């Protein structure tokens, strides 16, 4: 088990509360109300559907974000990692301090002929996380859990900004979207024990409570985009 850094303490605290409640039958696994999925309109602006492309999204703990996108048709790979800081300190124990500038993020390699950048954004905003929570998601607090779209081109930035404006104008959420858009300076894969964590640990209480409901929401809200078999990093 990884060492207890601030982010692991938050996860452990959540587990410590949940386990006894589960044992007493006082809690059922329905997911966090704070991160409940929403049905939102598709983006009015999207990118051309050609070639192979990548997208980098941050939205809380990368376990759940990775787990969601591994179940999306057209996604060829989804890797948990760090973005927003330097390579030198892109390590879990340091990122967990909240002092490195990184966010826990997921790099998604996808086929735009199957799933577009806009569709990935729609899933990101709808089921992968709550974009109205500033510098936290559920039990995880700190700038390393911020809601951020890391863009690698002006076109990605244009689509992301337009979609955020579209969702805010439609009042898709009860509060304004706080998702930031940052230029991608580099993506650094996380330690191996973080990869495929949701699939490899489906009964882990944090995963059951916070992340399995996101995958279930993906299947319910986006049935045409859902793939029963996840694309795992360990299989590549």
Automatic annotation (TrEMBL):
It comes from the Bacteria. Pfam families: PMSR (PF01625). The keyword Zinc does not apply. The chain crosses the membrane at residues 12-30. The keyword Disulfide bond does not apply. GO terms for molecular function: peptide-methionine (S)-S-oxide reductase activity. Has an important function as a repair enzyme for proteins that have been inactivated by oxidation. Catalyzes the reversible oxidation-reduction of methionine sulfoxide in proteins to methionine. This is Peptide methionine sulfoxide reductase MsrA. It comes from Devosia nanyangense. The gene is msrA.
């Amino acid at each position: 088990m990884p060492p207890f850094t601030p982010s692991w303490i938050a996860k452990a605290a959540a587990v410590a509360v949940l386990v006894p409640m589960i044992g007493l039958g006082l809690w059922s696994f329905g997911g966090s109300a704070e991160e409940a999925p929403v049905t939102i309109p598709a983006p009015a602006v999207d990118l051309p559907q050609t070639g192979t492309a990548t997208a980098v999204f941050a939205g809380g703990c990368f376990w759940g974000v990775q787990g969601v996108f591994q179940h999306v048709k057209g996604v060829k790979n989804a890797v948990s990692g760090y973005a927003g800081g330097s390579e030198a300190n892109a390590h879990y124990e340091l990122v967990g301090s909240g002092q490195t500038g990184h966010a826990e993020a997921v790099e998604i390699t996808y086929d735009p002929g199957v799933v577009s950048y806009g569709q990935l954004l729609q899933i990101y905003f709808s089921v992968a996380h709550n974009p109205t929570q500033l510098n936290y998601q559920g039990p995880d607090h700190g700038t390393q859990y911020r809601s951020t779209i890391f863009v690698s081109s002006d076109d990605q930035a244009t689509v992301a900004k337009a979609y955020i404006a579209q969702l805010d104008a439609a009042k898709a959420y009860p509060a304004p979207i706080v998702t930031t858009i940052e230029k991608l300076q580099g993506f650094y894969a996380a330690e191996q024990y973080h990869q495929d964590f949701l699939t490899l640990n489906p009964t882990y209480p944090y995963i059951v409570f916070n992340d399995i409901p996101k995958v279930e929401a993906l299947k319910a809200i986006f049935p045409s985009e859902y793939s029963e078999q996840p694309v795992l990093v360990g299989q590549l």
